[in-house]
Amino acid sequence: MENMEQKKTLHEVKVGETVTVTKLLGEGPVKRRIMDMGITKGTSVYVRKVAPLGDPMELSVRGYELSIRKADAKLIEVA
User: Considering the domain boundaries, does residue 2 fall inside one?
Assistant: First the structure.
């Protein structure tokens, strides 16, 4: 099973990279809040900045700036 692609979350993406959301993890209110921010499957996300301690991350999503917590970024699978 060496060749199985490792799932990557938004929290692992480096500054300057653009990724596409493949799946939202989490349940209920948490998932709803992420979707309400415009982060849905198929959305392009550009990582603009990450705070020195990694929290929060500043993203560009659908033409606007968004800051999210590291805990939320771990719930967003990307490719």
Answer: no
Residue 4 has pLDDT above 70, yes or no: no
Domain harbouring 74, CATH code: 2.30.30.90
**CB crowding 50-72: b at 16 or more within 10 Å, else e:** beeeeebbebebeeeebebebeb
Structural domain for 22, as ranges: 8-78
Q: Tens digit of pLDDT for each residue in 18-61?
A: 999 999 998 999 999 999 999 999 999 999 999 988 789 999 99
Please give the pLDDT value at position 5: 57
The tally of domains found in the chain comes to: 1
